[in-house]
Amino acid sequence: MKRRREFNLFLILMLVLALAILAGCGGGGATTTTAAPGTETTAAGNESTASTGAPSGGDIPIGILTSYTGEMGAFGVPWFNAAKMAADEVNAAGGVLGKQIKLYTEDDRSSVEEGIKGARKLIGANGVVAIHGPISDILLAIWPIAKENKVMATSPAAGTTKLDETGGDYEFRTVPSDSFDGKVAALVLWENGYKEIGMIYENDEGRQSISAAVRKEFEALGGKIVVDVPFTPRQPTYSAELKKVASANPQAVWLGSGQESGAVLLKDAKQRGYNWKWMVSSDLAVPEMFDLVGKDTLEGVLTEMPSAETSTPEFQAWAKRFQELFNAEPTGGFQSNSYDAIIVMALAMEKGGAATGEAINQNYRDVSNPPGEKVFTFKDGVAALKAGKDIDYEGVSGPLDFDAHGNVTGSYVSMIGKDGKWTQLKFYPASTWEQ
Amino acid sequence: MGNLNLGLFISGIVTIIAIYGILALSLNLKFGVAGLIDLGVVGYFAVGAYAFVLTTAPPPSELSHYSIGLGMPLWVGFIAAPVAAGLFSFLVGLPALRLSGEYLAIATYAAAEVLRAVFTNEDWLTNGVVGFNNLRQPFRGAFASGDVYQYFFMALSLAVLFILFLILSRLHWGPFGRALRAIRENEQVALSVGKNVTKLRIKAFVLGGAVSGFAAALYVSFATLIVPTMFVSEVTWTVWIALVIGGTGNYVGALVGTAVLVTAQELTRFFQASADLASVLAASRLIAMGLILIVIIRFRPRGILPERHYVDTKAVPVAESTAQAVSPKRVVE
Q1: Residue ranges of the domains in chain B?
Q2: Which of A308, A329, A354, B129 has the fewest CB atoms within 10 Å, i.e. is most exposed?
Q3: Which residues of A touch B287 (CB under 8 A)?
Q4: Average pLDDT, 10 consecutive residues per value, chain A (435 residues)
Q5: Predicted ipTM beyond 0.95
Q6: Which of A4, A5, A6, A7 to mutate to test the interface with B (most CBs of B within 10 A)?
Q7: Which of A33, A48, A69 to mutate to test the interface with B (most CBs of B within 10 A)?
Q8: Which domains are assigned to chain A?
Q9: Residue A371 preceded by cis peptide, ω within 30
């Protein structure tokens, strides 16, 4: 009798605790969101809020399925904001085929199961023509459902290499695949004169696929990988792994890792007196690294990262608008990629003459790839389309030229550590990859 | 505008209810009937899921890291999943069932967490964090329309749930269930009448694990992909909450609890105001779940549908309800 009651008490405590922890995770996501002023009149919402302007002939529902809570919780609101900005601009310019875009949103909680449930709700209960916003795993999970229902599935950030050769049908990404990261790294190493390199990288999906790309590209250029060492992250020391690399005596070493492990590993190598030339993956190309390992360690270290052509007037103007609307920097978090996806979809529907996922699927390449008149905004794009011209939308995140599998090629910069800062070495426009 | 397809939404919810319902049945056998606090629900579930995938996935290509992909028919997977989950339950249960109450809870929880780390890191077996996608779905080829297939899959899940429910209910009212309840209520008494307590517990544990293997096979077929992050402890908590809401010790209660929990969660989707609030609402959804749980436990401490007893509990004071075995007043069955 007493045991049973103890059981129950224990049980209640455990469950309440578990919920509190889960809610805490959610709360963490919530606090990182920047409160967006003036978004009360948001285009999202189910019944409550209508989009600005008088809709004629109904709305075009688009679903934003993204992570407001969970591991990726910090990204949800910026991506939604960017998508909303695009939708508002489209609507202000008269909408698509005279109809207003209306956004519906669901939280995927960074989880595959919640993503599937959210996608089914958006398709089933809101009748969306497209779902935009999920990360790699979730995009892969919802894509078959979307395709079956003729709903476009797009992401501003899903870098998975699994879609490189298979995507494109009712799916596109406005971010380059992870495999480009590897290509860039190999090219930068080669251009800096290294012929024999070693590779050491964290044992996870992103880093593994990048390392495979580094190898492929570097060997294609004529270089040689002399040693290849994957490692388990979050170890107190990496001396065994470093010894393995040292035994092959490489000229330079490519390091693919997160910040935590990367910092420990770089410090370890420095202490042991291994003076290789380092090339580190884009995860480490952040200013915080200098605080973590000290500027001496990073002096002369190479890195690369995807970067929009931030110097263009179009990007600058867009960034200013974003800043004014949401009081937040639009860089480093795929906001421009999210914005572009909505504009491409709107233009594709306009061109297809129908507000459907089918129209987007058939036309998204047409409106964003050459040949055609280069346009930078939805308004100009519509005007050109109405004038009977072919258009090539140039996005704020890049030129947005999709290949047959819905992938874009991106622009990158190579950088070098100098006096406690990452300094730009060379800009690689997206055209570098067009061969 | 757009083509509404409420069937897609609803069939998805019902499928999820069926899958979690199976897990709730499994937990009810272990905790509700046998009194074993098992916080490792997701562990057996994950083993079943990977067993299903590894037996049915195509052989590895040069780009993948996994080395086993047997490419067998799906029905083999549907057998392999419960077998593997049961086997894993046995391995966990063998040492863990010597522990009682809270200690068992911690041991099973730890086993599930360790397992997730293994699945994340052992590339050669599980393809690591990359996992598998594009998984085949049972009988998919027989349906031209994806819509019709969604209903079929829902029906399939419900059928599996129903069959397992029948089997477990039958066991519940037979000697096996009776012995388990006896052990739960008073281990010493059960021992004194010659019941092999450890053996019975292991049986319940393994059977429960195997049942969750069926849920796992359905789950990955539904999701069409598998990655280690699908098997976090949240699955365990969801099942526990469903069981506590529904009524521990009652298989119908377990299903009612699951249906109430999942439906309540899905309904909250329609209360969202805007995306700025979405993050706040998502967090408050979990808080609301906690409140429902507390309210249920406060006012219906034994769940929506409490356990049916051989003895009418109304005839004896509630505080002594467990003493009924010693002083039966009115026999119900």
Answers
A1: 6-232+254-259, 309-333
A2: A329
A3: 19, 23
A4: 58 66 45 34 36 55 89 82 94 94 90 92 93 92 92 91 89 89 91 94 77 91 92 84 92 88 91 91 81 89 82 86 86 83 96 95 94 92 94 89 90 88 85 69
A5: no
A6: A7
A7: A69
A8: 59-175+334-393 (3.40.50.2300), 179-307+412-433 (3.40.50.2300)
A9: yes
